[in-house]
């Protein structure tokens, strides 16, 4: 098993992430808002939020109206037991920055910091609205040896494994379906208004699209990501390609999008890109 400095690695991987806190009184959640990374690889710089050797064995996030319960084990009653162990410390993004938390579970060996069937509970009071991220560091038994922090089955490098969930207030949840906007053609998206719910859906790449640059959306399972800082405060791009939230700052926001059928994995596939803009009115 690899020895590593977890704290230094944590600072390197997450120092650039920023989220905004908004006060709300009620929350709703669904299975679609839990376990945002379920297949198709992981964002650059992170390990997969599921077992790459058994992709259906994900890092569970069971969302309720009050907390997100994190379980590093298999589906249903199937537990990974001796085939997967988890480092006893994780981190979650809170309104005050990244916060360390502890996983509970059965010790792998006496004196070991690794656990079987690791679990933790993240209270919604500790995290802002919108997409929230946490990390685990797991090791899987494959071909007679431990492989830790894997991004793919080659597992030639170790990473913190990123997973996410959505804390969504009832106002945002009631946005409705919203229109679908194309990823190509420099679309001018619907105007938003400060304090009012906003929702659109980004369309898929057409076959034979051209490569773009900047922020990106991707992959074969229609998981979308955003890597642009010039985005309206209060809005989030969700992994299903939906942009929704309640804008907080008026202005014109221009950004670039890039999409692809296998973008996360770095494999050949359809790619497309373009620019878009959102106006937020007072």
Number of domains: 2
Largest sheet: 8 strands, antiparallel
The fraction of residues in strands falls at 35-45%
Oligomer: single chain
Compute the number of strand runs. Answer: 20
Helicity range of the residues?
under 10%
Summarize the helix and strand pattern as letters.
HEEEEEEEEEEEEEHEEEEEEE
Could you describe the 3D structure shown?
This protein is mainly beta. The longest helix has 9 residues, at 6-14. It has 2 helices and 20 strands. Helices cover 5% and strands 40% of the residues. A hairpin with a 6-residue loop joins strand 8 and strand 9. It has helices spanning 6-14, 170-173, and strands at residues 27-28, 50-51, 54-63, 67-72, 84-87, 89-94, 97-102, 104-107, 114-123, 130-136, 138-142, 145-148, 161-169, 180-181, 192-193, 198-202, 235-237, 242-245, 251-260, 271-281. Strands 2, 3, 4, 5, 8, 9, 11 and 12 form an 8-stranded antiparallel β-sheet that branches. It has a 5-stranded antiparallel β-sheet with strand order 1-13-10-6-7. It has a 4-stranded mixed β-sheet with strand order 14-16-18-17, with no helix packed on it. The chain is globular. Mean pLDDT is 68; it is low at 2-31, 74-78, 208-223 and 262-268. The protein has 2 domains: 6-171, no CATH class; 176-281, Immunoglobulin-like (Sandwich).
Core attributes:
20 strands; eight-stranded antiparallel β-sheet; Immunoglobulin-like; mainly beta; 2 helices; 282 residues; five-stranded antiparallel β-sheet; single chain; 5% helix; disordered N terminus
